[in-house]
Amino acid sequence: HMLLASGLTGSFLMAGISAYRWLNSDRAPEVMASLRTGMMVAAVLIPVQIMVGDMHGLNTLHYQPAKLAAMEGIWKTQRGVPAVLFAIPDQTTESNRYEIAIPKLASMYLTHDWNGEVQGIKAFGDKHPPVGPVFWAFRIMVGMGLLMLAVSWFASYELKFKKALSRRTAMVLVAMTFAGWVALVSGWYVTEIGRQPWLVYGVLTTAQAASTVPARNIALSLAMYLTLYAALLSAYVSVVFYLAKKAVHGGKEPQLNTRGLRHV
After folding, report:
1. Residue 264: pLDDT over 50
2. What's this model's pTM, rounded to 2 decimal places?
3. How large is the angle between the packed helices 179-194 and 131-157, nearest 10 degrees?
4. Long-range contacts for 236-244 (Cβ within 8 Å, ≥24 apart)?
């Protein structure tokens, strides 16, 4: 599942940068080749990812049922469980507000039986993860994946049969350059938050493994990590777009906007 997610992240990154160059009138053979490669690889990998995700869901249902209940927003153990498309989970009342659901669909894709039984969050007492973050992270991951599927298929169709992208499709690809990364990080939120309160599922809780280091030291360390990774992410995004602009200009240094600057 993770390997396929990494491949999809790379595919959309490559296609997004190529689409940026295409929008800047760069029709070099390597641009079109990388654009086609990125989209066609994604168009093939996403259906495979959906099948692997289905198998992963069955595994989670068996080994981490509390996580799966939080992902799906299922509070009561029941048969013929509906698939919750949208809701606002409320842990205080142990219910979903403003729920929009499709009857029995969750039982079908979770157990492969329209009347299959799925345990609800209430069955685990206080041994379940915070529902809201897991519920929404899962929907961001799935929603982004379905959007990537639609875009990759449509872009592949244009490249295959129309031999060129429409400007609108190219702009969408640029906007989705980091779509794979968003889906991947959302999936990790589901994984890491979803296993709470367990560090080793069913054996060791996170509280039991808590560090004896003072909280202020941990906060300082975390702040340093966040600062470092934010700087690295900013530098990475800047370099990616710098290289894309440089390629558009035929390998020459891109023009910088110096308005408002003065020499020292």
Report:
1. no
2. 0.80
3. 150
4. 240/13, 240/17, 241/20, 243/17, 244/17, 244/20, 244/21
